């Protein structure tokens, strides 16, 4: 049986693995298979219900500065690894080699299960903040609804790869990927739905910025992870109640992130 001490040891081992993988990636090593394996194992670890129960005991130790620092770094390192894996996956697809990590299988399942909550239709205009190199959300939304979808990202390389993926998989779909920010994008004012990627650290600061930039009926889907899922996602935070209110929280026990739905306060 896993104990809190054993869980912490597992977390430290994952942190060490992610550090090494990310350092190798930065040095231009081709470590796709190792990244795929570690991300898959980490996904299974985060979704293990027994580990979630033990995590509740570990959380009480967050006054331990070393543990708190390691948890914060693990979140950063795992997010970086996913960012790199998205690029690998895009390049593999474009080279006609379609390996897929368990994490990406799970993300696609998450998108499918959250999908119906947004009431997206053919006439909707959907903005994804944090499109990444492999834009699964725009592709799935456009394929299932025919809605117009714009994904934005601040990483030029990711945007270039994402555009190539869309050209290959999103033919006849109304999808654009832009290297810009929310305040520089005209589409922000016209959007009916906005989706935040779960690994965006500044997503709640961006939510506040969005208030004057968007229309009164905007629906915002904020992907997040609390509890053990916070190791793979940034957790839910309080927002200015004069600006936004949560109208629904979609709990997805078997999926790597949950979703909070926001609307503007009247």
Automatic annotation (TrEMBL):
InterPro entries: Nicotian_synth (IPR004298), SAM-dependent_MTases_sf (IPR029063)
Molecular function GO terms recorded: methyltransferase activity; nicotianamine synthase activity
Coiled-coil positions: none
One Pfam family matching this protein: NAS
UniProt keyword Membrane, yes or no: no
Keyword S-adenosyl-L-methionine attached: yes
Keywords assigned by UniProt, alphabetized: Methyltransferase, S-adenosyl-L-methionine, Transferase
Gene Ontology terms: biological process: methylation; nicotianamine biosynthetic process
Entry superkingdom: Bacteria
Name of the protein described by the UniProt record: 2-polyprenyl-3-methyl-5-hydroxy-6-metoxy-1, 4-benzoquinol methylase
Organism of derivation: Fontibacillus solani
